[in-house]
Write a structure and sequence with these properties.
This protein is mainly beta. Helix content is 0%, strand content 49%. The chain has strands spanning 3-7, 10-13, 18-25, 34-41, 48-53, 60-62, 70-75, 80-85, 94-102, 117-118, 122-127. Strands 2, 4, 5, 6, 9, 10 and 11 form a seven-stranded mixed β-sheet that branches. The protein starts with a strand and ends with a strand.
Length: 128
């Protein structure tokens, strides 16, 4: 079992930055065996893929709308994955969720169904 807790959300003006954290805990397999993805869900919309990092840490993936603005990274010593969000836009407003996939990598990380564990989400609001 893996428990994921997101933090770092909040209210920010357009053009600002936030860093989201996804902290993992639990028993069994160690955190460095898990790929981690970030998804977001705006009101009335489907939950969509944002970014992911493979369990090896050597590959990252992101959706086109955040390329060049968001960066995902991981610190296995702290069992934490980060999502650095820069140049935020009002359309980035959503609840952001992190999720874990055992030894995941590649295009599968773009799919919600690939993930075994989910956090409760953190709200990000970008004002214009």
């Amino acid at each position: 079992q893996v428990q994921l807790v997101e933090s770092g959300g909040g209210l920010v003006q357009a053009g600002g930055s936030l860093r989201l954290s996804c902290a993992a805990s639990g028993s069994g397999r160690t955190f460095n065996n898990y790929a981690v993805g970030w998804f977001r869900q705006a009101p009335g919309k489907e939950r969509e893929f944002v970014a992911a990092i493979a369990w090896t840490g050597t590959s990252t993936y992101s959706t086109d709308s955040v390329k060049g603005r968001f960066m995902i990274s991981r610190d296995n010593a702290k069992n934490t994955v980060y999502l650095q969000m820069n140049s935020l836009k009002p359309e980035d407003t959503a609840v952001y969720y992190c999720a874990a996939d055992f030894r995941g990598g590649g295009v599968r990380l773009r799919s919600r169904g690939s993930y075994d564990y989910w956090g409760q989400g953190t709200q990000v609001t970008v004002s214009s």
